[in-house]
Specification:
The protein has about 170 residues and is mainly α. The protein is built from seven helices and six strands; from the N terminus they run ββββααααββααα. The longest helix is centred in the middle third of the chain and has 19 residues.
């Protein structure tokens, strides 16, 4: 494509301001790259999360301040499917299992992984999907208060023009 004597290459996806944009306008790749970044961040503080010297509350603070912001960067614009919601919950539960460590069964004395319900009881904050939804609502309120000249506001309140033809599309 050429614009004002500048040629641009057509690509399937690219990174812009830390966000992965695709030509299909799919959020799936963005969520994958965010979780990959979160996993690398989690791996970098693994010695802190597995330390027995730190309290669980301090480990949760580390999770909220170091790992969660990396994963949730730009989540205000995500439209999540159930698959992405499930993947994000799996990521969060895996990280919280590292923090809360395996539980020793009192009867048999064996260690076992914590169930999701037990993790939800121990981690009393809202889960990652609820955080994303609340951030989206905050962003929508922010956009609704913007001036009428702003492009984001026009996208929010705009109505598409024209008509879509009736029937199924013709084969080309």
């Amino acid at each position: 494509m050429k614009i004002d004597n500048s040629s641009f290459e057509r690509v399937e996806e690219f990174k812009y301001l830390g966000t992965t944009l695709t030509n299909q306008n799919s959020i799936q790749e963005e969520v994958k790259s965010r979780m990959k970044s979160g996993n690398s961040r989690c791996h970098s503080v693994q010695n802190l999360l597995s330390s027995s010297l730190l309290t669980k509350n301090l480990k949760i603070k580390i999770y909220r301040t170091i790992i969660l912001p990396v994963v949730l960067y730009g989540c205000e614009t995500w439209s999540l499917t159930l698959r992405e919601e499930r993947r994000l919950r799996v990521f969060e539960n895996r990280t919280l299992r590292r923090i809360f460590r395996p539980k020793r069964d009192e009867i048999t004395g064996e260690c076992r992984k914590l169930h999701n319900e037990e993790i939800n009881e121990l981690y009393c904050s809202p889960n990652i999907v609820r955080v994303i939804k609340s951030r989206r609502m905050k962003w929508a309120g922010h956009v609704a208060r913007m001036g009428k000249g702003r492009g984001v506001y026009r996208v929010l309140v705009g109505k598409p023009e024209g008509k879509i033809p009736l029937g199924r599309p013709r084969h080309k």
